[in-house]
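We emphasize that the prediction below concerns an isolated chain of 169 residues; any contacts that depend on oligomerization or on bound cofactors are therefore not represented. The input was used exactly as deposited, without trimming of termini.
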Amino acid sequence: MTDPNKPDQNISDDDWAAAMNEQEGDAQPSEEDDPWAEALAEQQAAEAADQEPEPSHEPAPEARAASGSVFRPLEQGSGTTEARDLEMIMDIPVKLTVELGRTKLTIKQLLELAQGSVIELDGLAGEPMDILINGYLIAQGEVVVVEDKYGIRITEIITPSERVQKLNR
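Result of the prediction step, given as a token string:
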């Protein structure tokens, strides 16, 4: 017989028999060599221990009050910590926007716009303008002119419940 991968080499029947015997010996490993058998035995032992708890003659540990080592006591000067934490965010930039009004247009109306076109907004003249921080309504105010520049005077800070009502607009 020849090996299909090595046609020049002849293999005797004794070689085949030895290889088969070796393979049969590997097919049935002893429990000592089989890690699965060890794991199953360990699992069964653990389950048996869970089902039959051994009686314990030791008293249960008593509950005791938490000491200062577990929870740090509050300090009188904790207000300075809050101020220091607040200082960390003071330099974060935000975007303030003043909104005159809104409207909805169709794409056809949008394409028909030209220089000099007038767009009607839902805001009324004299009505307070919305002041948005990063897109969230936080206040309302009125437009003022200071040295040839526009500005806004805050007239009302929006409460959380009013913010929800304004979102439905």
